[in-house]
Amino acid sequence: MSRHSSLLAALAVAALLVLTTARPALSGDAGGATASAELGTRATTAGCGKTPTLRSGTHSIQSSGKNRSFILRLPDNYRSDTPYRLIFGFHWRGGTAADVDSGGSSGYPWSFYGLRQLSNNGAIFVAPQGLNNGWANTNGEDVTFVDDMIRLIEADLCVDTSQRFATGFSYGGGMSFSLACSRATVFRAVAVFSGAQLSGCSGGTQPIAYLGLHGIGDTVLDISLGRSLRDRFVRNNGCTAQNPPEPSPGSRSHIVTAYSGCRDGYPVVWAAYDNGHTPAPVDGTYTDNGVTTWTKTEVWKFFSQFGSTPSPGGGCTATMQTVNSWSGGFQSTVTVRAGDSAVNGWTVSWTWPGGQTISSLWNGVRSGSGAAVTVRNESYNGSIAANGTTTFGFTAGGVPATPALSCDAS
């Protein structure tokens, strides 16, 4: 992948600390885009059902009296009757929208920080171009630019307005954080790579799902700056304060921690890695590589957990989330949800994709051998009320994975 231009330390901590004073958040004045649907409620835009005029490629727009540009990527075989996720990818200082779109020397596997490939044509992607290749957000003009892009896109394309996301590295991480502060009711979640408060934080009191990723050896934007961003949303989201574990220098590894106690639907996750100022660390090395990095999988998993899920009817469904990971192992929680009717027992099954092995399990009874795993309820947690949930957890060896789960109810 291409080397990313670094922020000067003095610039990072002083010259770019601005406050956003953008105009009010999106309203329904253009194409039916609303400020945001209520949490978890699917809402669509005026572009749904229309023959689109926007196509993949570079587009220009007037915003705050300036000519701005962005790169748009539609899914292959885009359908106007399908509401898509809308994902913004912000470039670093000295980078460009084209760098985010192309993936640099890593190519398509790193396009939009790896999310475009992982979306499997399930999302619309936007790479905005910053003024002077940065995101100073003077007088809130970059937040307004985002507002204007959303209005334009959603008036023409079919978007699920409860599924807007933003991510970026370094200065782009600072811009994503700024949107978390000022547009928490517009965006569902943000993922901040190696960020700091560089683009302001207007508001900053509302909850939003937040993923922070930062290298312990970052000499451009110290990890303490990333922790500070994270802690704002630990507070806003009502999470239990903690000092999450981070890898030791020389370990060439990463640790992912999901905070506990957060408001339902507003998780906070922290991923720390033994590397420097890069969004694409690779365990076991001090290099970066957009093809093999683990970060893109973590970000996609974080964003995709908010997908609209059909009602399971009278049966049950199960979802798996990795809550911690370390070199050679990980910990996961599985949530079992009853459908519209109560269940008196449940069985969850899956197949590991890469040789993972469970070492310990609680709140369930495991059977099966090899890659095939089956977990049934304990005597005390088999009964679940209609639309209620229960959980079980485990630790396992191997690379973290979230395979597809099946759930059978009795």
Give short descriptive properties of this protein.
410 residues, alpha/beta, Rossmann fold, Immunoglobulin-like, 2 domains, 13-stranded mixed β-sheet, 4-stranded antiparallel β-sheet, 7 helices, 17 strands, 28% strand
Structure description:
By secondary structure, the chain is of the alpha/beta class. It folds into 2 domains: 57-305, Rossmann fold (3-Layer(aba) Sandwich), CATH 3.40.50.1820; 316-409, Sandwich (Immunoglobulin-like). Helices cover 17% and strands 28% of the residues. The protein contains 7 helices and 17 strands. A 13-stranded mixed beta sheet has the order 1-2-4-3-5-6-7-9-8-10-11-16-13, sandwiched between helices. Strand 5 (159-169), helix 5 and strand 6 form a beta-alpha-beta unit. The radius of gyration is 21 Å and the shape is globular. The termini are far apart. The relative contact order is 0.12. The model is unreliable at 5-25, 27-41 and 309-313 (pLDDT under 50). It is found in: Secreted. Belongs to the faeC family.
